[in-house]
Amino acid sequence: MLKEIAVSFLRLGTTAFGGPAAHIAMMEEEFVRRREWLSHEEFLDMLGATNLIPGPNSTEMAIHIGHQKAGWKGLVVGGVCFIVPAVLIVMAIAWAYVRFGSLPQVQGIMYGIKPVIIAIVLQALWRLAPSAVKSRFLAIIGLIATASALLGVNTLLVLFGAGVVTAGAAWINQRRFTEPFAAIPTIRWPGILPVLKSVSATAAIAPFSLVGLFLFFLKVGAVLYGSGYVLLAFLQADLVDRLHWMTQSQLLDAVAVGQVTPGPVFTTATFIGYLLGGTTGAIVATIGIFVPSFIFVAASRPLIPRIRRSPIAGPLLDGVNVGALALMAAVTLQVSRAALVDVTTAVVAAISALLLIYSRMNSAWLIFAAGLVGFAATRWFGG
Fold first, then answer.
1. Which DSSP state fits 188?
2. CB 3.0–4.6 Å: which of 163, 291, 332, 357 could bond 320 by disulfide?
3. How far apart, in whole angstroms, are the C-alpha atoms of residue 37 and residue 42?
4. Out of 125-134, 187-196, 267-276, 298-307, least confident range
């Protein structure tokens, strides 16, 4: 089983373009629909729990799935194998960047791949929605959450808002006072956040060092919620404005690499680590930003079934699940503006969505084919 987990996540880590929403959609296709390792309900509960802890959601889903199939060894193997391909690709690009002073040209490839990413997320929403939207009330919550996300409401407010409203409605329906959360242990890591804040303050007056690099990315991995744009804000404030370890131009290139390469967007840290400290710096930064995810998932795993059994916490998780799908829908609508730019990309997206929904075609083949089409179109026809 460990070998099967490793091969599955190595392949996903090599082909999972498009950011967390697309990665999660590909995992649903692979592990729920094709391999049937999980039910839709189990997958949604993992997704809801993942959205409640800091760190990269798709990586944490890989860790959850690995643990579900093979315990603690699977937890490590699933997470590491999803991360490693992206790390190696980003390190190769970082080497080329340092050597030649620019990024490889990937616009043509992404022109073809982006419409397929839209289709992948759409098919995941198509399959997950019936399990998540269990009532008209949850459907209304989902629509409100989607609208809120499109209006720019903070992702955490969308998630917790959907969960709290759903749990509140369940409490009102029961018309009784209980203590549903009493059986759920509270997890605290006393002293971690003060230490991390202290580390950040100390780093402001320290020259570059590998230890400082590790502690900075450890802090980011431990407290960061949200998308790659939130990560950009952390990097800008600390590495550019305060520490002056890198330039604005280098930061934008690093974020671009994280966006256009497969696997977790957090491999932006790998690129930055390579620029600042070579291969060792890349490894140190990568370990720093991803280690908290393994810790948070390991700590939260025992809570998922206990939350589901609670008369109020169960509905809370239902609401969070609907909120998570709403965020995926909102991201898809926003990204589609940049992905579906002409008739060609619209047709590619439509055909891909139909193939994914009504056949068992592996999305990796669609991504590969679309990348070739996009490269050829932009190189030979100027598309």
1. -
2. 163
3. 10
4. 187-196
Quick check: helix, strand or coil at residue 304? helix
In whole angstroms, what is the distance from residue 132 CA to residue 115 CA? 25
251 contacts: CB under 8 Å, gap ≥ 6: 232, 235, 236, 239, 240, 272
Which pTM was predicted? Answer: 0.66
User: Cβ distance 186 to 299 under 8 Å?
Assistant: no
Nearest to residue 123, comparing CAs of 370, 366, 365, 354? 354
Residue 134 dihedral angles phi and psi, to the nearest 5° = -90, -10
Of 23, 39, 38, nearest in space to 69 by CA? 38
DSSP of 207-268: ---HHHHHHHHHHHHHH--S-HHHHHHHHIIIIIIIS--S-HHHHHHHHHHHHHSSS-GGGH
**Euclidean distance between CA atoms 34 and 28, whole angstroms:** 9
- Give Cα 229 to chain centroid, integer Å: 12
Q: Tokens for 190?
A: 């006393």
- Name residue 136's amino acid: R
pLDDT band at 190 (very low <50, low <70, confident <90, very high): very low
pLDDT > 80? residue 383: no
Q: Which positions ≥6 away from 160 have C-beta within 8 Å?
A: 320, 323
Token digits for 367? Answer: 């991504």
Measured distance CA(367)–CA(365) in Å, rounded: 5
How confident is the model at residue 247, as a pLDDT? 84
CA–CA distances in Å: residue 295 to residues 1, 49, 72, 110, 361:
22, 14, 11, 34, 35
